[in-house]
Amino acid sequence: MQFRSLILFFLLSLPLLFHNCAQVAQPPGGKKDTIPPKLVRSVPTNRQLNYTGKTVELEFDEYVNTENIQQKVTITPQDSNTFLVRSQPLGIRLTFDKPLQPNTTYTIDFADAIKDITERNIATNTKVVFSTGPTIDSLGLSGTVVDDESRRPVLGFLVGLFSPTDTLPIQRKRPQYFARTDSNGNYRIENVKAGQYRVYGFDDKDLNLVNNTQGERVAFRDSILNLNRNYEGINLVAFRNTGKPRITRRERTDETLGLELSSGIAGYRLRYGKPGDTLVSFLESPTMIRLFRPADRAAADTIPLTVVAQDSAGNLTELRERVYFSPLKSRAKNRQAFAVQIVPAPGEPIDPNLEFTLTFNRPVGKFSPELVSIYADSTKPVPLTSENFTWSNSFGRLIIRKSVNLRDSLFLRLEKGAFISVQGDTVARVKNEYTLADEESFGLIAGRINPTTVAQVGDKYIVELLDEKNVVVQSVYGTPTYSFARLKPGRYRVRLILDLNGNRRRDPGNIQKMLQPEPIIYYPGGDEDGFILVKQNFELTDNDF
């Protein structure tokens, strides 16, 4: 009986034993497999001519599998011919729905989609080039893509070639040929048929080969490229293509309506459709206009209006809107506390030429300047007049400027009731203490502009000093020498902007109007990232362009 039980147990265990034997696994012990799969055969063969098949097959020297193959494989030139992927133990097969184009050189690149099944080593340089005609197209172009603002290389940026006769804009069209930039911003497009092309580039974050995402960086070559030889140095500048703003979302509370825009704006104004209509509003962020329910409109009346939005280049866009508010339930239900952000933050050392920026989370309806004071001794406050207060953004931002002869430290005090919002609530009492820095606590950066550098614009140029967050700290216009003084210790960059149209501001690019962004030149010195480290009592006076 015991012997029969052993036989039965053995028979029941056989499927489990065979299952374990069939699994592919790294043998215990020994060196780890670090050798990637090697391509041993392809159909068609690499650089084969006159290929008439509808399938492409790859065979490797070990078992492989694929990962996101439909997203990672790239085929140039692009067309609408779709394909079916079938994995095989030692490779992969692509079967196209329709015959391939005649007399065309195809490049099929599998990127990092193919890996071995043991250690997932990536099959490198997995690419097949073949032709359906008697010759292989051998022309190509290369270049570098840098970011417009930082002037640093852009990784993974798609650069494509489009037919100059395309009627569809690049926002709705895939390129015929394309390549992506490496970590140094370099790209190379190969095996291109001779002809004329427009050169465009874009971020392509969703990997669909179409520039259809608002706010993606774009780049383009000004003129059509006649590709009758190999080209190098087709360099591009990638800039934010915001296009015309549009209202993408409406955010309603009991007392407000937020109009969210597709791109940031520099300012706006409201034009009403009916006489007597008016609304309080302000720019809550570069992409959000906040409107407030009028005090005399408890009902959900409709107010027709037009938002005239202005971008950083001064272009105006009109957005028609019919504004209404939800039925009023509770005035405080969705209301945030009325608050203010003050720059510089308390505790920071500050210059005796005081400048405080107060940013409110909604517009101020009533301001009592006598409740704002600056002092070292509370019995002797520094006198402030209306000239010391500058309002902007529909009374949503206040700058207080005042030069003082105080030493060591001072206080900025805002009494309760100094600022009352358009909704009737007040900012809580504030008392910030600051340290007054002496002259040796600051640094200085100065330099000269070489006339040859700005020869194309004469004296129409801007020199800007940027902090580590790329925020403009100081700027000057059209001066052959510049000096940025009283700088707090930190890292700074200096850049020169060529003001091509002389409007005293830097204009971004516009791909719809085929306008390149105005050129930026960064000071070539500093550390590896171009920053100048400013310490206390620091001076750099040969910061020349």
From TrEMBL:
Signal peptide bounds: 1-25
Which Pfam families does the record cross-reference, listed alphabetically?
A: Big_5, fn3_3
Q: Where is the Rhamnogalacturonan lyase domain?
A: 159-203
Keywords annotated in UniProt: Signal
- Domain of life, per the record? Bacteria
* InterPro entries in the cross-refs: Carb-bd-like_fold, Cu-Rt/internalin_Ig-like, RG-lyase_II, SbsA_Ig
Q: What are the protein's GO molecular function terms?
A: carbohydrate binding
Can you give the residue ranges of the SbsA Ig-like domain? 33-132
State the name under which the record lists this protein: SbsA Ig-like domain-containing protein
Organism of origin is: Fibrisoma limi BUZ 3
